[in-house]
Amino acid sequence: MTIAPQRVVTLHYVLSDTDGNVLDDSRARQVPLEYLHGHHNIVAGLERALEGRAEGAELSVTLMPAEAYGQRNEALVREVGRSAFPVDDLVPGMRFQTPGDDGPQVVTVVEVRDDSVLIDSNHPLAGHALRYRLEVLGVREATRAELAKGHPLPPGTDPGSVEDRKLP
Fold first, then answer.
1. What are the transmembrane regions (predicted)?
2. Is residue 58 a contact partner of residue 134, using CB atoms and an 8 Å limit?
3. How far apart are the first and last CA of the chain?
């Protein structure tokens, strides 16, 4: 079976920057990635590179920023009041999940000032070219419940316990 929309793909990957520094390794964590193809569960360039591949395929892909996490947008670096944070001991590099216009987003603390905090809402990998080494472990048809939710469900999930996504 080949990778196509509405199929669940299981794979191992090693993500590195263009200098060869490993940023993430699913095999080292002993947790393969499982995603629903065609549902924007992974970056677009990676999904395009995997389309049509079959179980056992191994490939290397280099993605430019536009195909991965996008270009950095300096307008997403801004100052907010210290009261916006649930902790007093803020240090640069801390990350927090906040509500955003398109759902939850992660912000990174850049600088802590007396009354304010400089934050960056860019994805930490925005603006970076990325290299992936991939091994496709499995491809299967998604269940109705997975299609309704838009992502793979844990094994043994009772389909009756899954609520379909509501249309706007």
1. none
2. yes
3. 33
Q: What letter represents residue 64's amino acid? A: M
Element (DSSP H or E) covering residue 47: helix 44-50
For the sheet with 103-112, list strands across it: 77-81, 116-120, 103-112, 95-100
pLDDT single digits (tens) 114-134 = 899 999 999 999 999 999 999
Listed in sequence order, the residues at least 6 apart from 71 whose beta carbon sits closer than 8 Å to its beta carbon are 65, 126, 127
Pairing between strand 7-17 and 130-141?
A: antiparallel
**In what helix (H) or strand (E) does residue 142 lie, and over which residues does it extend?**
none
Of residues 86 and 131, which shows the higher confidence score? 131
Query: Is there a contact between 72 and 126 (Cβ–Cβ < 8 Å)?
Result: yes
37 touches 8 (CB < 8 A) = yes
